[in-house]
Amino acid sequence: HDALKLSASWVGYRDQGLQAYDTYSGVAGTGSSPTEQVGSFGQVQRRIDDDTLSLQVLWTNEARGHEWLTTVGRSETRVRDHFEPGWSIFSLNSQVDDDIRQTHHTVDSRLTLGLWRGEGRDALSLKLGGQWGDSEREALRVTSNPVVNNALYPGGYNQAQPPGRKRHAGAYAQLDWRWGRWQVLPGTRVD
């Protein structure tokens, strides 16, 4: 008897406000400057928008020991940071605005084929799977000082947070042999 299950999920996260930039290493409310009050990197007005979508298909045939699970996902995160002059070591004399967008796409597919079933837990199955991912990052930094923009951030490029793209793919094959209390899992993987 076959069973098919389809599921979808979406998670959205929104946040904004004045906060410590990256890490907090000071004692809140001490000192006379914003940097002393919130830590060594200062403070930032940050806005975060994050959306994650996941779709999943699961097919099972319990009688034969077969299962196929595939998940497709996409997430996008956008972080916009604004520094007023003096808020951070990055904005000593001018406003600084960062706009960072990260997008991730993933596919994960796993197939289990039941090859033999004995008594109790005794069984032999073949597991096959593959994964694929694509991640992209866009980043832009602009200050209120054109001289700083031209000297340190030409075209909005910030070498501390460079844009880029990474793709990966992988596949595996694995036997799953169960005999009494023993389990042997030989396999191979390629990335």
Shape: elongated
Percentage of helical residues? under 10%
Cα distance, first to last residue? Answer: 35 Å
**Major sheet summary line:** 8 strands, antiparallel
Radius of gyration: 25 Å
Q: Per DSSP, what share of the residues sits in E-state strands of 2 or more residues?
A: over 45%
**SS content category:** mainly beta
Please mark out the parts with pLDDT under 50 across 5 or more consecutive residues, or reply none.
none
| Number of strand elements | 8
- Please tell me the overall pLDDT: 91
Provide the succession of SSEs: EHEEEEHEEE
Number of helices: 2
How would you briefly describe this protein structure?
The protein is mainly β and 191 residues long. Helix content is 6%, strand content 64%.
Descriptors for this entry?
8-stranded antiparallel β-sheet; single chain; 191 residues; mainly beta; 8 strands
What does this structure look like?
Helix content is 6%, strand content 64%. It contains 2 helices and 8 strands; from the N terminus they run E-H-E-E-E-E-H-E-E-E. With 191 residues, the protein is mainly beta. The model has no long low-confidence stretch (mean pLDDT 91). The longest helix has 7 residues. Strands 1, 2, 3, 4, 5, 6, 7 and 8 form an 8-stranded antiparallel beta sheet that branches.
Describe how the helices and strands are arranged:
Blueprint: E1 2-20, H1 34-38, E2 43-61, E3 66-83, E4 96-117, E5 123-143, H2 146-152, E6 164-179, E7 182-184, E8 187-190
Antiparallel strand pairs: 1-2, 2-3, 3-4, 4-5, 5-6, 6-7, 6-8
